[in-house]
């Protein structure tokens, strides 16, 4: 048996060793299928010890069987610098069809000790107005994120987004609605009108606005334009049902 044949048989054995997790495996297999509507990113989360790492390893082995290049990143061996993560992931980002499995600790480990660098990149990426967040403000925010546990707590908000969506959908399907006046303000270069559109079916007294020239951080990027929308909304008499 040649080396290639042995490697294939080992990969097949490893990929088939995982028991259960059929729904999750189906999602990962669809990602590997190359279908045009297949997801590009899978976020795997859950309590410790339930088999997340085993599922990721199984997905990597199945990717190898599909002749996809697999680039594995282990944050334990990276310096606490976001640039090291970018360097480690570069082969997966540069080659079409490559697969990048990594542990959820990667982002925290790559950011720990470089909180200001991470937040500077984050603010620059999401904002459309250069200089919105000067270094001294970034440093103030970074001080709240300093340390592994602070980063874990800060990122936990994003880890719950999918579950929040499921809870909100279930609430809406059972008749849930927002009876009060609601103002939805989106930045032109961020959520735009999509923010108001997403609330249209649950907020009958909805006012939507899009702030021109703004990114994600509307109050910080365009404070005057934001105030022009907010102050009339707060001072207006209670609106009757119906979007205005």
Distance between the termini: 72 Å
Strand order of the largest sheet: 1-2
Question: What global shape is seen?
Answer: globular
- Low-confidence sequence ranges: none
The sequence of SSEs as H and E is: HHHHHHHHHEHEHH
Protein name: Orc1-like AAA ATPase domain-containing protein
Organism: Streptomyces antimycoticus
Pfam families: AAA_16
GO molecular function: serine-type carboxypeptidase activity
Give a quick rundown of the structure:
The protein has about 240 residues and is mostly helical. It has twelve helices and two strands.
Describe the secondary structure blueprint for this structure.
Elements: H1 3-15, H2 22-33, H3 52-65, H4 82-94, H5 105-111, H6 115-126, H7 135-144, H8 148-159, H9 161-173, E1 182-187, H10 194-199, E2 206-211, H11 218-221, H12 223-235
Parallel strand pairs: 1-2
Describe the structure.
The structure is a single chain. The protein is mainly alpha-helical and 244 residues long. It has a domain at 177-235. Helices cover 53% and strands 5% of the residues. It has twelve helices and two strands, in the order αααααααααβαβαα. It has a two-stranded parallel ribbon with strand order 1-2. β1, α10 and β2 (206-211) form a beta-alpha-beta unit. α1 (3-15) packs antiparallel against α3 (52-65), α2 (22-33) runs parallel beside α3 (52-65) and α4 (82-94) crosses α5. The N and C termini lie far apart (72 Å). The model has no long low-confidence stretch (mean pLDDT 79).
């Amino acid at each position: 048996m040649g080396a290639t044949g042995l490697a294939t048989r080992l990969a097949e054995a490893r990929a088939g060793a995982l028991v259960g997790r059929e729904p999750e495996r189906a999602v990962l297999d669809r990602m590997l299928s190359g279908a045009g509507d297949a997801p590009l990113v899978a976020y795997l989360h859950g309590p410790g010890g339930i088999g997340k790492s085993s599922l990721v390893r199984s997905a990597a082995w199945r990717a190898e069987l599909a002749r996809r290049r697999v680039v594995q990143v282990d944050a334990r061996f990276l310096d606490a610098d976001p640039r090291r993560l970018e360097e480690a992931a570069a082969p997966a980002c540069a080659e079409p069809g490559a697969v990048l499995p990594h542990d959820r600790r990667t982002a925290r480990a790559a950011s720990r000790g470089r909180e200001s660098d991470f937040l500077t990149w984050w603010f620059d990426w999401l904002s459309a107005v250069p200089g919105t967040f000067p270094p001294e403000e970034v440093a103030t925010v970074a001080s709240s994120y300093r340390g592994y546990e602070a980063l874990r707590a800060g990122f936990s908000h994003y880890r719950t987004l999918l579950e929040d969506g499921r809870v909100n959908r279930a609430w809406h399907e059972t008749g849930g609605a927002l009876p009060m006046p609601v103002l939805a303000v989106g930045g032109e270069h961020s959520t735009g009108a999509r923010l108001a559109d997403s609330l249209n079916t649950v907020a009958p007294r909805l006012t939507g606005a899009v702030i021109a020239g703004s990114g994600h951080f509307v109050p910080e990027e365009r404070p005057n334009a934001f105030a022009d929308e907010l102050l009339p909304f707060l001072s207006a008499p209670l609106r009757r049902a119906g979007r205005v």
